[in-house]
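Need residues for this backbone.
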């Protein structure tokens, strides 16, 4: 929590317009004191531009990181992340349809269609993996996710080849992850979904610890493995779908952060889940700060920064395991 607070304060001060910490404190004091004087330029930048973006980035980072923890534990796959079930492909296709149809002129129009695409993907994956017949195998989920993702990727490429240049720019920027469009409605929606989903996931943390030891062990300890697996997979998929539908595709957060937190805190999910959520929030805020300052006054999609950090991390991780 201390790290996240420090990262947020630093991100508020850093940008195209550098704002000293003293001005930050005075701006916050003015807001809390209900000052009647018109806001200064610094206050507008801090409270209307940077603060919503930081809050939004923290919520999305926490959602993706917590989702990565659960998926890696349930699927017993260290490379599993919130996109392993094809959620990214479904959300992306839904968002592209929304952009082409002009849904951006409506409140939460594009995010709503992206969320519908993610839910459709989750349904297709679960049906393909055998969930409708009462059983659900980990390898079947992964294979079904790969197949569905491949189909949606082909559909996305087709859509990109037929849209005009204006729509192409919006679609490309969304596909690489974008936090610049955060507003009050999106922040509140994402925060409520994260809080509700995290509460359910954390309530299942002890059962998740037992399931990681083996499904037979969990059964002997009184855990209903099938119901617990359904609950965890559906809730995690929904939380991830909300994050992706609002912020676009931001890769590597759900893979890299859980690995790093396991090295520090171990595999007890009662500690790992909140630690990964907080560090994931901090990581994405830092990445977004770099994205909007590294080539200022222009900015990069935050997904570019996370990919630049995540790819080398996994090369180093694979080489270390190879030596082991």
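Answer:
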């Amino acid at each position: 929590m201390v790290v996240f607070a420090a990262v947020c304060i630093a991100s508020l001060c850093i940008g195209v317009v550098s704002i000293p910490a003293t001005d930050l404190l005075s701006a916050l004091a003015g807001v809390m004191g209900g000052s009647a004087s018109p806001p200064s330029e610094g206050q507008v930048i801090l409270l209307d531009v940077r603060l919503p973006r930081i809050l939004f980035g923290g919520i999305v980072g926490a959602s993706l990181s917590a989702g990565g923890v659960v998926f890696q534990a349930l699927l017993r796959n260290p490379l599993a992340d919130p996109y392993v079930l094809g959620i990214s492909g479904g959300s992306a296709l839904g968002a592209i349809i929304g952009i082409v149809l002009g849904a951006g002129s409506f409140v939460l129009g594009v995010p709503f269609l992206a969320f519908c695409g993610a839910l459709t993907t989750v349904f297709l994956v679960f049906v393909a993996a055998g969930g409708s017949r009462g059983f659900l195998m980990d390898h079947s989920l992964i294979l079904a996710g790969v197949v569905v993702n491949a189909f949606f990727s082909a559909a996305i490429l087709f859509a990109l080849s037929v849209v005009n240049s204006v729509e192409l720019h919006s679609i490309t920027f969304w596909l690489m992850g974008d936090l610049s469009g955060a507003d009050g409605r999106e922040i509140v929606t994402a925060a409520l979904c994260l809080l509700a989903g995290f509460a359910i996931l954390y309530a299942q943390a002890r059962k998740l610890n037992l399931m990681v030891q083996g499904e037979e062990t969990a059964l002997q300890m009184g855990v209903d493995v099938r119901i617990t697996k359904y609950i965890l997979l559906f809730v995690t998929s929904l939380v991830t779908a909300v994050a992706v539908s609002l912020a676009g595709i931001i890769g590597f957060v759900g893979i890299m952060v859980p690995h790093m937190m396991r090295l520090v805190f171990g595999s007890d999910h009662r500690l790992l889940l909140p630690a990964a959520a907080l560090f994931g929030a901090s990581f994405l805020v830092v990445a977004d700060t770099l994205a909007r300052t590294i080539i200022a006054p222009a900015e990069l999609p935050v997904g570019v920064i996370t990919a630049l950090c995540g790819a080398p991390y996994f090369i180093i991780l694979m080489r270390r395991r190879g030596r082991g």
